[in-house]
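Take a minute with the sequence and fold tokens given here and flag any structure token that looks odd. Thanks in advance.
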Amino acid sequence: MHLAVVICTCDREPQLRTLLGQIDTQLEDLATCIIVNQGTKGLHERLAVRDALKYRFVEQKNFGGAAGFTRGIIEALSDPNITHIVLMDDDVEVDAGLLCRIRSALAYISPQICIGGAMVDRDRREHLLSIGHNFDSSRAMTTDQLLRRDVHLEDDVARFLFERPLKVGFCGWWCFCFPRQAVETCGLPLPLFLRGDDAEYGLRLKRAGFPTVMWPGVYVAHPNLQNQTRPWHHYYDRRNALICALLERGAVSPKAIMRLMRGTFNALALYRYAEARAGIDALKAYLGGAEDLKSWNEDMHRARMNDDEVSEVLSKGTPIYLAAYRAPSIRTAVTVLRVLRDILSFGRVKAMSAYDPIVRINAASWKVGTVRRPEQVQIDSGRNVTELKRDPAQARAVFLDMFRILWFSVTHPAPKPEDFLRLATPAWWNARLKAIIRKT
């Protein structure tokens, strides 16, 4: 077995130094380590590695993790001796036996099996964060093998999942190993930029006969990302999930579209207007098909990131919990009435700062159907505070945009799977990468 480790990085040098220091101790178990830098130029000159012949540094403009990892795959497969590729995030930490365990497993399992690595909490190594994922194509949503987040490794559920091979739909690219044959059969990842590129590729490999198995003892430590989702994350999650559903089923079900619309409606009720716009724009981008996807670039990504809610450093103060109506029907009715009130408020809105003090609320209780709905809130997640306030003008604009895009989806033909898959061919990627490669 000849392994090529591929790491995509963008201005995370402290984390990358830590990871490369850990890889340095197990160089005998890999053929090469390829670092694709999409951040500040000159990374290879700033980093010291133990065996320079084992490392290869590549630099290119930032076209997201999908382009970075794909460039690494292409570089790895230029060596005909490479049999397997291991994708890793730049902010993971690994123990000294990881690559040896992967090589040992590959030596006797089916050559078509992909190996996934579990994720434990970097700051609390005894807590399991992920053990692989599945995908519900009817609702266009990812599901986790863990029924709840942050499971202690000594729990019976964690031990049952962690101590035996476990077939899953896909594994995140924090640690994912696949054979050369998979690329030769299925092509390369789609240019999904971020969040969902691992799902799309893993699901495509599985459909072609290259299933992912979470292997006992194969894991990495990663920062806990819980409660760190921003509106731009939501955009990529929704857009890429719709593309995954299309490729899985041949068409996106009405249930998936309605789920997205319901999420947008709920975001309006919670004053999360940037998140609501992200959901609508995600549907627009999906309906734009392959042409929209291949035109996506770093400038568009930065514009997406700039449409955000206002966050600030956690300040003093104890957040309150908002009680919610217990009956689901009442919560639904209250939510609908509140959104209708917002979008129909064409008159002058009162000066909220003068009449309504900002209320600090625990993030877990800020959900639709609460008995009380303050006009201005600070949502306290325990890590940071996000300020939100009722804005009928924004609610009305998003609501109208929602109807426009729904009408467009009904009156125009849906994207075709084969159009997207043309963007996964080596020929397409070679043409794309020529435009973003830096001279080093």
